[in-house]
C-alpha cells in the first residue's frame, strides 16, 4: 500500500474535553495526515508534511475535516430491519418487535443479509467500528464477523445469552451460553481486527447460573470485552429488584459474578445509585450512552458529564434499533439535547470525543483507534462541514472552528460523510486525489 497524504482540517485530542475542557482538543486549519501501511505515520501542518514527503500520493480535501472514524459503543445489528418501530416501553417493545425479529437469525442467509446491510449503512454514516450484540444463535455472530473481516473492519461483537424471561426459541442455558461463547471466542477473538464481547443481554434474561458461567468465561479470557445493559428504565430496575431481592442494587447483580471492571460496557446506565457510581468509578467499568434510544423509548436522561467527572469512561452508542438513527452525528446531537435538559451545555469538542476517542476508550481500543495520533490505525473519515444548504449558510457565519463544526453535529447526516478510509484504504464517498 503506497503512502498517502491527506490534506484538510484536522482535530487531535490531548485529553478528555468532558473533564479538561475544549483546550484538550487541537485544531489545525491547514493540517495533514500521513498514512503508511494502514496506520497514521505523521500529523502536522500541511506545508510541513508536503515538504517532508514530496513523492507521496496526495488527497486534497480542501476545508473538509479529517477525523477518526466514528466508534459506536453499543448497537444491536440484528435490529437493523426494525429500526424506528412504534412502541411503548422497553419490555413491550422487546416483546413486540425485538424478539420476533431476532428469532429470524437462526437462518444463516438472513443473518448474512442483515450483517451486510448494517455494515453498508454505518460506513455510509462514517462509523468504522461498532460493538454489537448479536442473537442467541452462533450463526448471527459468525455472519457479522465474516462480513466485517471481508471488509477489514475493526469490530466488536458477541452472542447474546438469555436463559429466562424470553421466548422459548430465543433461550439458551447457562452451559450452552458458556460453550457457545467459548467456541466463538476461540474461532474469532483476535482474528484480524475482531474482538469478542461476552454478552449476557441483561439480568432479567440471564439467571444467576448463566451470569456466573459467563463471569467464569471472562476470567478465562480477560482480553475479551463484556457488554450488557444496566438501569435503562425504572420498571426494569424494579423487575431486577423483584428477581434478586438480596442484591445491593442492579450493578451488584453483575458485580457478584465478576462482570464489572475494565472492558465491561454498561449500556444506558441512566438511573444509577451513588453506590453504583462509586463502584463503576473504582473498577473502571464503562458506560455506553445511547441518547436517541433513551428518548425514543422514554427511558430517561443519562448524566454524562457527572459520570465523566467521577472518572467513569463514557462513550456514545446509537443502540440500533432502540435508537432511531444509524448516524453518530444525530446521536451527538441527541446527547447535546439530553444534557441541555439537565442544565449542561456539552461543548462540541466533548461531543466529538464521545463519538470517537471516548467510545474507543470504553472498548479498550484507544491504543488502536479513535484519535488522530501517530501509530493509530488509519480508520478515517472526511467531514463536509457545508453538506447541505441549511448547514452551509450557518457555517458561513462561524467565527471559530467549533462554531463551524456545531451545525454539522446538530443537523448533519450521511451527506456530511465525504469519504471513509479503512486501514488507509478508501471505502466510500467521492474521490479527491489531486495535486495541492
Total number of helices: 16
The overall average pLDDT, rounded, is: 95
Q: How many whole angstroms does the radius of gyration measure?
A: 21 Å
Low-confidence stretches: 430-436
- Structural classification: alpha/beta
How much β-strand is present in the residues?
Answer: 15-25%
Shape: globular
How would you summarize what this structure contains?
The chain is of the alpha/beta class.
Give a verbal description of the structure.
This protein is α/β, with parallel strands linked by helices. 38% of the residues lie in helices and 23% in strands. The chain contains 16 helices and 16 strands. The strands form 2 sheets. Strands 5, 6, 7, 8, 9, 10, 11, 12 and 13 form a 9-stranded parallel sheet that branches. Strands 3-2-1-4-14-15-16 form a 7-stranded mixed sheet. A hairpin with a 2-residue loop joins strand 15 (417-422) and strand 16. Helix 4 (108-124) packs across helix 5 (138-150), helix 13 crosses helix 14 (348-362) and helix 13 (328-340) packs across helix 16 (401-411). It is globular. The model is unreliable at 430-436 (pLDDT under 50).
Amino acid at each position: 500500500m503506497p503512502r498517502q497524504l491527506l490534506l484538510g482540517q484536522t482535530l487531535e485530542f490531548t485529553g478528555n474535553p468532558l473533564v479538561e475542557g475544549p483546550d484538550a482538543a487541537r485544531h489545525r486549519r491547514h493540517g495533514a495526515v500521513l498514512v503508511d501501511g494502514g496506520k497514521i505515520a505523521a500529523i502536522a501542518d500541511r506545508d510541513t508534511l508536503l515538504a517532508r514527503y514530496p513523492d507521496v500520493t496526495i488527497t486534497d480535501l480542501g476545508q473538509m475535516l479529517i477525523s477518526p472514524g466514528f466508534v459506536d459503543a453499543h448497537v444491536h445489528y440484528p435490529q437493523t430491519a426494525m429500526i424506528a418501530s412504534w412502541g411503548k416501553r422497553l419490555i413491550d417493545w422487546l416483546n413486540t418487535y425485538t424478539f420476533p425479529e431476532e428469532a429470524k437469525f437462526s437462518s444463516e442467509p438472513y443473518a448474512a443479509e442483515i450483517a451486510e446491510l448494517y455494515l453498508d449503512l454505518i460506513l455510509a454514516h462514517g462509523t468504522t467500528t461498532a460493538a454489537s450484540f448479536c442473537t442467541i444463535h452462533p450463526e448471527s455472530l459468525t455472519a457479522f464477523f465474516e462480513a466485517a473481516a471481508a471488509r477489514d473492519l475493526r469490530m466488536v461483537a458477541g452472542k447474546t445469552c438469555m436463559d429466562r424471561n424470553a421466548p422459548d426459541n430465543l433461550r439458551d442455558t447457562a452451559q450452552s451460553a458458556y460453550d457457545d461463547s467459548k467456541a466463538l471466542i476461540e474461532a474469532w477473538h483476535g482474528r484480524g481486527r475482531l474482538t469478542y464481547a461476552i454478552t449476557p443481554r441483561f439480568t432479567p434474561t440471564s439467571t444467576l447460573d448463566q451470569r456466573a458461567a459467563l463471569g467464569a468465561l471472562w476470567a478465562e479470557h480477560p482480553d475479551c470485552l463484556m457488554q450488557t445493559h444496566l438501569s435503562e428504565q425504572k420498571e426494569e430496575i424494579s423487575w431486577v429488584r423483584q428477581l434478586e431481592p438480596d442484591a445491593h442494587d442492579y450493578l451488584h447483580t453483575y458485580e457478584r459474578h465478576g462482570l464489572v471492571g475494565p472492558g465491561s460496557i454498561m449500556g444506558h446506565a441512566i438511573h444509577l445509585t451513588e453506590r453504583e457510581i462509586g463502584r463503576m468509578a473504582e473498577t473502571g467499568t464503562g458506560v455506553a450512552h445511547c441518547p436517541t434510544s433513551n428518548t425514543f423509548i422514554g427511558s430517561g436522561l443519562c448524566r454524562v458529564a457527572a459520570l465523566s467527572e467521577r472518572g467513569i469512561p463514557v462513550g456514545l452508542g446509537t443502540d440500533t434499533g432502540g435508537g432511531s438513527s444509524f448516524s453518530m452525528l444525530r446521536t451527538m446531537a441527541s446527547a447535546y439535547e439530553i444534557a441541555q435538559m439537565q442544565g449542561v451545555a456539552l461543548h462540541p469538542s466533548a461531543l466529538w470525543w464521545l463519538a470517537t476517542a471516548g467510545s474507543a476508550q470504553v472498548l479498550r481500543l484507544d491504543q488502536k483507534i479513535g484519535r488522530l495520533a501517530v501509530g493509530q490505525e488509519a480508520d478515517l473519515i472526511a467531514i463536509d462541514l457545508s453538506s447541505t444548504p441549511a448547514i452551509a449558510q450557518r457555517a458561513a457565519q462561524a467565527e471559530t472552528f467549533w462554531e463551524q463544526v456545531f451545525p454539522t453535529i446538530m443537523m448533519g447526516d450521511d451527506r456530511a460523510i465525504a469519504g471513509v478510509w479503512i486501514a488507509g484504504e478508501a471505502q466510500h464517498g467521492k474521490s479527491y486525489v489531486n495535486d495541492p
